[in-house]
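User: Working on a comparison across species. This one is Glucosamine-6-phosphate deaminase from hydrothermal vent metagenome. Can you predict its structure so I can line it up against the others?
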Amino acid sequence: MKVDVSPTAKDLGIKAAQKGADILRSIAKEKERLTVVIPTGASQLSMYDQLLQEPNIPWERIDLFHLDEYVGISSDHAASFRRYLRERIIARLPAFGSFCEVRGDAEDIQQELSRLNALLGPKEIDICFGGIGENGHLAFNDPPADFDTTDPYILVNLDMGCRRQQYNEGWFKRLEDVPKQAISMSIRKIMGSRHLIIAVPDGRKAEAVRNCLESEVSPMLPASILQQHENCHIFLDPDSSRLMTKTQ
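Assistant: Here's the predicted structure for Glucosamine-6-phosphate deaminase from hydrothermal vent metagenome:
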């Protein structure tokens, strides 16, 4: 795990995108088809703006997956992660290999999980972009996270801290409107990625950043497991890193 602290949130996004682009260009020289996982959230916007400007990324050879989706909301809901990614990423790409949407409003969630796991299960993720939640979650794996399941996608319960974060960020009009369950990529599938690019701006994340990066690895601090990934690059700004006491 490597940690980089940028002078501003914008610089953080630029650095994270440039690192991710360098990795993508390098891997594209050794294999024909790439598998990439992309996250959502306001904290990722500056990173995406830069990533989409990076030259010589063979998007037409990249199969895109996303980390998670709420259960029970439609693809046109304002908080839908499918909608977020279609509008902010897919629509801005000149071409792309494929985009596998997580259908949180599927009539049969277990059947949807089976579909997703059949699609992603055999694939090695070349690079997974992500963040860290205010409660330390990784994707929607809230504490206590399941570090053991080998299923690529799982059904998870969202804790109150997670749901409150989604409400406070303006994705829902009322706290009670935030779904209580989601489909999430599992911890083990994320950790199986060849490379991880984790972008975490904002002082709201400072306590979670300190706890996850400086404490012992624990399911109660889901993102703490990032410490065990040798090709994990974490990008912070002065606000998100302000409580850290150790020099990485």
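For your comparison, note: The first strand starts at residue 2 and ends at 5.

User: Helpful, thanks.
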